[in-house]
Here is the input.
Amino acid sequence: MPVPRYPAALRTTALGLALLTIATGCPAMAAAPAASGVESTAAATRFEGRDIFAVQVVSDPQINPDGRTVAYVRRQGDIMSDRQKGAIWLVDVASGTERPLVTDASQPRWSPDGKRLAYVAADAKGNAQLFVRYIAEGTSLRLTALPDGPQALAWSPDGTRIAYVMRVPGEAARLGKAPDKPEGADWAKPLEVIDRIDYRSDDDGYVQPGYTHLFVVSAEGGPPRQITGGDFPDDGPLGWTPDGKSIVFSAVRKPDWQRQVFDSELYAVDVDSGRIGALTSRVGPDHDATVSPDGRQIAYLGYDDRRRSYQNTQVHVANRDGSGAHSISAGLDIGFSAVVWSADGRSLVVQYDLKGVNRIGRLSLDGQLTELAGGLTGTAFDRPYSGGGFSLARNGTLAFTAGNPLQPAELAIASNGKIRQITHHNAEFLAHKALGQVKPLAVKAPDGKSIDAWLVTPPGYVPGQRVPLILEIHGGPHTAYGPHFSSDFQLYAAAGYAVLYANPRGSTSYGEAFAEEIQDKYPGDDYGDLMAAVDAAIASGVADPDNLFVTGGSGGGLLTAWIVGKTDRFKAAATQKPVINWISEALTMDNTQFTSRYWFAKLPWEDPMMYWKRSPLSLVGNVKTPTLVVVGSNDYRTPVSESEQYYAALQIRGVPTALVKIPDASHGGIAARPSQAAAKASAILTWFDRYRTAKPDAR
Here is the structure.
């Protein structure tokens, strides 16, 4: 469905980046492009589905150890292959001068001396291989000829070796055998025998036989050497000790590891002998280890597992052998997502989420946190999830992904207390787009709790004008939206809708208690928060109370289906990749150990009514709202059968509905292909337009 064109008088260009600091609560970035904030001109056009191909994002920023240069992956949709493609670029921190380095490449990692860059790119046969680029000479050396792609690249401290993680193929399970096949006969494929608990994953489909293990290869080329083995999956990131003799990694190396997948430990492997020793042993995940510069301590992330659907991930420090382990962030009601040592080993640099915005801070070894940079932005831009990434130079300079509601992720630098944006890949393109403006909306829940929310108004919106409203609900539910760019929301706004999004209780970045309020009750309490947000949007004078619509994905899809089972106030709904029946979801999702362990007190067959009472399918008899059902055909997280159950139930009841399947799309990849992301938004808008009281201009 093409997005409608509107008269020039209704168009407006984006606000300047400096004004966006009001919405983000983050420091303004020096040298930001001065986008126009004046009234629209004839040159400004609304955001369209095809524009998803034009949006560029910065990801995986890696600053040179000397702090002078940053390597990063610059991603953009390729309109011919319909895929996001990445190229590695270099940028000079002082001048901002950029140059392309390698096309179709990822995972840039600097050598300790900063003269070489390891990365992963495809060989002539399309297989992912490990390369090293000699920066001064401008030449690249292919190090490997691997059957599978290397992950978690890590240079040895002396720069002579590179460690990585890769899957080692194994034998498929067998039960009996077919008769001998006559020569030339055309028989059916052999039986597939599955005996693993983790037999499929949303991103990769059905698990191939084998396990991921650690390898080391010379930085000058030669045969790689496998240094871990066994029937366990080993994982990165990989932390070398300063003497280059050991590597610290994360894994679940236990006889019943498939039943303990959330109980990872830290291990150290001797690079020469392959001898492995456990560094942690508590019940709960331990991961993302980093070794101190003097080699005497390790820092890592984790928590003591209390079988809750959410717990803050804490920062721990221990001696090099794992003794003396203790949390240094226990006094902070914050969840952390990344940790590295400062160059002097006296503190840690950490990433954390606060009120929907990721930030970087310095955490002292006695637990004192000081913010160094805010405004981090994730690199998936279909919806405004919090996120982002950073790296740290020896001199303390930070490189990170930064953005705001009208700008996808760009590269920013923080140094000596100053923050400066140094790439502006989308400035020219978005300066000529009339974008929906994003403002915070104050919301009070029925119990008086404050709920963060944001309202996107259509381009050219005139204050006091009532417009149709789409309530868009985030998934998780233990995630967070924030003041970040969203292509979905801009497409909805371009079609004349205001978009409301919020962080109801259960969302992260507001402390552990806020996230845990939905324990054993989800999705019940979120309903009141979301309805309060809708009421606030109406009270603001923006939302038309007679033209309300609702959608959301995953946990947001579950809440969409729950809402239309509770109220008829919405004209139409679109539930995307939802959980509809907790019993069937618990037994068919890709990680069957999760739902019944962390979301419910008993197993499905022990108390089925506990599951049923919290399932949107239990409310389908109340539904009158026309409801679209959307799902990826390869979704193994909230499997296709969940959506099909709901579609069938709505059809049986005679409620207007349609089922949209996105071919070859996983749960996490429902918007990975640009054309499908645009088509999905178009389908939802077409469905809403069908039930919208005031019809939009002809498309």
User: Anything to note?
Assistant: The CA atoms of residues 565 and 620 lie 6 Å apart. Residues 1-42 have pLDDT under 50 and may be disordered. Residues 674-691 form the longest helix (18 residues).
